[in-house]
Amino acid sequence: MSTSPASISPENSFLKSLKIGNVDIGFPVVQAALSGYSDWPMRVIARRLGAPYTICEVMLDHFLVNLKERKRTSHFLHISDEEHPVGGQLMGAEPEQFAAGAMKLVNAGFDIIDINFGCPVKKVLGRCRGGFHLSQPETALEIIRLTRDNVPSEIPVSVKMRRGIDDSQESRDNFFKIVDGAFEIGVDAITVHGRTVEQRYIGPSRWEFLKEVKQYIGDRVLLGSGDLFTAQDCLDMIQQTGVDGVTVARGAIGNPWIFNQTRALAAGKPLPDPPSLFEQKEVLLEHYRLAEELYGPDRVGQLMRKFGIKYAVLHPDFKGVRSAFVKVKNMDQWRAALNEFYAEDLPGCHPDGKMHKASGSGNS
């Protein structure tokens, strides 16, 4: 599981090295925060397979403020040396509590603090968190201001947004008010998902809006998000919109190879073949081992089922593999599934990006 060199061919000269504040990211294709997924094992696997930067799954401010140092909850803030730089993403409703939660992430060792104003989940919106803040720019900017004031100046702060609550003029005005205010306060980068909060994951991500935003903010750092399911998608978004980098979300679940595949295309090489079944088996074993190290043998089996289902998409017998992984309770059963379905080194499959985009399901 080695990282490919970040060389860029002349025909891909639109790609530039990514930097957020004083943190050098390098290759401008990174792993997004993924609720329920981007824990330490997933982040480590992504780093080893070419992601230069990853972001932890979003955490609630009041949860962090009240978090005690207990073995059962230690996984939330677990970071290892090999994954730096790594971002900590935060979501909440009250500015003061939000800033206190951000400091918990700083003290845990996260290199960048990412503010979530993008989550479209109904229960999150109902509690005035996530994407809800796009409807109240004053509160959003107060959260950003207090967070930036409390977080040490050497720690960059970024913001994750959607293009608005909906497509009304008021929503558009609120979006640009937050963008302007965030950069004035001292935010180092903004990530924009090309769907509205109202859309959730239905319909296409509007990449032309990302282009408009990048032209509007000029040299300030903008990352794009939405409908990135293949290596070519990642390069296409950067080329078509001019964003400084992209954050891969659903497209990275079960396919961490997307990062090295994008690096290969950027270097002017052909798209690598999908990982063979032996290559997949190696990663599946390591992912389970890392998860067992973090969560313990009693909890890990059930937690890994959702990952197994996603990895199964790369197998020619998707349905059979999926059926085996949903029954896993421990490492022995995980190995048994691998020994049954990954015993022969057959070619793997590239995920169907069109299918993902049509389904409209997943995380942001």
Q: Structural class of the helix and strand makeup?
A: alpha/beta
The share of residues in helices is: 40-55%
E-strand count: 11
Order of helices and strands: EEEHEEHEHEHHEHEHEHEHHHHHH
Spatial extent as radius of gyration: 20 Å
What number of structural domains do the residues give? 2
Write down the CATH topology of the largest domain. TIM Barrel
**End-to-end separation:** 26 Å
Q: How large is the share of residues in beta strands?
A: 5-15%
Q: How many individual helices?
A: 14
What is the class of the largest domain in the CATH system? Answer: Alpha Beta
Overall pLDDT, averaged?
Answer: 91
Explain this structure to me?
- It is a single chain.
- This protein is of the alpha/beta class and 364 residues long.
- It folds into two domains: 10-266, Aldolase class I (TIM Barrel), CATH 3.20.20; 277-341.
- Helix content is 43%, strand content 13%.
- It contains 14 helices and eleven strands.
- The protein has helices at residues 40-48, 61-66, 95-108, 122-126, 137-150, 169-185, 207-217, 231-241, 258-266, 277-295, 297-311, 318-325, 331-341, 353-359, and strands at 18-20, 23-26, 29-31, 54-55, 59-60, 86-91, 112-117, 157-162, 189-193, 221-225, 245-248.
- Strands 3, 4, 5, 6, 7, 8, 9, 10 and 11 form a nine-stranded parallel sheet that branches. Strands 1-2 form a two-stranded antiparallel sheet.
- Helix 8 (231-241) links the parallel strand 10 and strand 11.
- The radius of gyration is 20 Å and the shape is globular.
Give the tags.
TIM Barrel; 43% helix; 364 residues; alpha/beta
